[in-house]
Amino acid sequence: MDLILWRHADAEDGVPDDARRLTAKGEKQAQQVGQWLKSHLPKQVRILVSPAERTRQTASALGLEFEITRQIGTAASVKSVMEATGWPHAKGAVVVVGHQPTLGRIAATLLSGTEAEWSVKKSDVWWFSNRLHVNETILRVMMSQEFL
Fold first, then answer.
1. Most buried of 13, 41, 107, 112 (most Cβ within 10 A)?
2. For the chain, which domains are there?
3. How far apart are CA 115 and CA 137, in angstroms?
């Protein structure tokens, strides 16, 4: 299984939190990363997105259908996201478009075995693969928009 974590792009400040929209910078980030990601994704991919406006706008840059779920929302836990994705037993690839600090905690858990406060910058992509036959998780790609 491939698990791709994509943090939403740069967003406006304000309340309510779920209504915050992408800034002009964020729209550019989402387009650049979305184009790169779409060119690398397998044909069969499931995309799970937080209900927050900024994550829906970010995911829209892929130009692919996606599912909106509260399990990925601003109050999500590592456990709720992992259950939503089916990690590590689901088939194929799953993209999660979500938020900090949850995405950083997932990255820490997958790479170190311990939940910790790791930073995933806005619009960054962390792509993990799991090889069940050897019980191994690998970080395949960590892509930052600034390198595109």
1. 107
2. 2-147 (3.40.50.1240)
3. 15
